[in-house]
Design a protein that fits this description.
By secondary structure, this protein is an alpha/beta fold. It has a domain of about 140 residues: GMP Synthetase, Chain A, domain 3. Helix content is about 35%, strand content about 20%. The protein has 17 helices and 21 strands. The protein has a twelve-stranded mixed sheet, sandwiched between helices. The protein has a four-stranded mixed sheet with strand order 2-1-5-4. It starts with a helix and ends with a helix.
């Protein structure tokens, strides 16, 4: 395979020069007005008088915020699956099937031809920043392993196919890149996730240069690789000596960081986070881990930011790059080149820089624990679990948290953590994990600390350590194994009861 990295290096040099000159405010305003021009003669564009919109302020006045349920009810469902000139010109050719992590319901997210092209450009941004960090890279000297969903898309109407977004992306790999893409078409088509993982582990060539996927599923793949070569050190370098890059996204990385560090020992590979939702490729790490993800401003998305505390208000304040502030928890809102406008995607973010804009993903807007008034957000839970794992020298493969309410046996409620560790800890280590997690949350969150003070509001957290593979089995039982499906971080009701019963058995 000929090393195409010199061509990528040339592209990256030009791309970084363009980004260095880019004015964030002007770029985002131009991006919005371009989207409105494209969609002005659609049913949605006519209904919202897109032709009369000349500024961000006009747009925010004429186009209200909408959640998925609003778009689905009023615009997508009446014509589904043949969505023609409704919110975006032409027929929407692909529908990304979202796992519905927050709502528990399946979502059909429109994916236009323009969105597919934008996602490809964003993927090149990931490689651009990798080359910037590692100028001697030979990232295109070997194949890239992408752990995604099945490419076996379902035809819903003439010219309309649906499936996992990663499966849609795999079907759109350009011809020049196909020889550098693993798994090959026959293997990528598999829907049985267990079989797919096993066959990928067996067939992966040793000259893999990059690996991409959701952290929890990547860890399962690494275990399959280790099982095939039990005499080799449990390190990625044992199987992929030329590995340079591990791209991760989809869930917060903090709980998995210790585990990945172990797998990457003895390797020169770096990790690089991306923020790629079904609705669009939003941001990519241009610096080191934890320094924020750089918003992609010139690629078919217009970003708005609504303070999380105002999300349920009748007229919430709508900020954008022109006036958003650092250090505030915002719900991110997108307008996209697939026809979503003023769309609340359900993620919470916090800007850490303004020029260029960088953000941290702090969780889902519905992903928090406040059963007793403790107001713990997703970011705090993930960092607390990571702190607990460090305290006992273990890695976390996955976890969920729920609230256990008072009953006749216990006067106070508590948080229940169901955690899959690597390696499995003994009872004393589990107790230390619980104490360290509790202490970290007390230090991060004053409301939580107040409720835990003096034993008057909440009991100490309870931790159930589950066997290796527990969460994969649970997701399999729910029909949610693999692809972009994610273990829900905060669970309640029947979901918590089911998880607790399985964990206790």
């Amino acid at each position: 395979m000929r090393d195409a990295t010199p061509l990528l290096r040339l592209y990256g040099w030009h791309r970084r020069r363009r980004l260095a000159r880019l004015d964030p405010v002007r770029t985002q305003e131009c991006e919005l007005l371009s989207l409105l021009r494209r969609a002005r003669d659609t049913r949605f564009g006519r209904a919202h008088a897109f032709r009369s919109i000349n500024s961000v302020a006009d747009f925010q006045q004429q186009v209200p915020l909408r959640r998925y349920e609003d778009f689905w009810r009023d615009w997508l469902k009446p014509v589904f699956p043949a969505i023609d000139d409704v919110t975006w010109p032409g027929r929407i050719g692909h529908l990304a099937v979202s796992s519905g992590t927050s709502s528990g319901t399946t979502k059909w997210i429109p994916v236009s031809r323009q969105m597919i092209d934008a996602n490809k450009r964003a993927a090149l941004d990931v490689l651009t920043w990798h080359l910037n960090a590692k100028p001697q890279s030979r990232i295109f000297g070997g194949p890239s392993l992408v752990l995604g969903g099945s490419t076996g898309l379902i035809e819903r109407a003439p010219g309309v196919r649906s499936g996992d977004l990663s499966g849609i992306a795999a079907c759109q790999v350009p011809l020049w890149a196909q020889r550098r893409y693993f798994p090959p078409p026959g293997l990528a088509l598999l829907e049985n996730w267990d079989e797919k993982l096993d066959r990928i582990a067996r067939a992966a060539p040793p000259d893999i240069r990059s690996i991409s996927g959701t952290p929890s599923w990547l860890l399962i793949l690494f275990e399959r690789l280790a099982a095939l070569s039990p005499s080799d050190p449990r390190r990625l370098a044992s199987w992929f000596p030329d590995l340079e890059l591990v791209v991760h996204g989809g869930v917060g990385f903090a709980p998995y960081q210790t585990g990945f560090a172990r797998w990457l020992e003895g390797s020169n590979a770096e990790t690089r986070e991306v923020y790629a939702a079904s609705e669009g490729f939003i941001a990519v790490a241009d610096r080191g881990p934890g320094e924020g993800l750089r918003l992609i401003l010139d690629n078919g998305l217009f970003h708005e930011f609504v303070p999380v505390a105002e999300l349920g208000a009748e007229s919430p304040t709508r900020h954008w790059i022109g006036n958003a502030e650092t250090g505030i928890d915002y719900a991110i809102v997108l307008s996209t080149n697939a026809g979503l406008f003023g769309y609340v995607i359900g993620d919470a973010v916090r800007l850490v820089d303004r020029d260029p804009p960088r953000l941290l993903v702090t969780g889902r807007t519905s992903y928090s624990l406040s059963a007793f008034g403790e107001h713990v957000i997703g970011e705090e839970l993930e960092h607390a679990v990571a702190a607990g794992a460090r305290a006992i020298g273990a890695a976390v493969s996955d976890f969920s948290v729920g609230a256990i309410y008072p009953d006749e046996r216990r006067a106070l409620g508590r948080h229940l953590y169901i955690v899959e560790f690597d390696p499995p800890p003994d009872a004393a280590a589990v107790a230390r994990f619980a104490a360290a997690t509790d202490a970290d949350l007390r230090a991060r969150n004053e409301d939580y600390a107040a409720h835990r003070s003096g034993g008057t509001g909440m009991d100490p957290p309870e931790v159930l350590a589950v066997r290796p593979g527990f969460f994969a089995d649970w997701m399999r039982a729910r029909g949610k194994l693999g692809g972009q499906n994610k273990v829900p971080r905060v669970v309640s009701g029947a979901l918590l009861n089911d998880l607790r019963t399985r964990a206790s058995s």
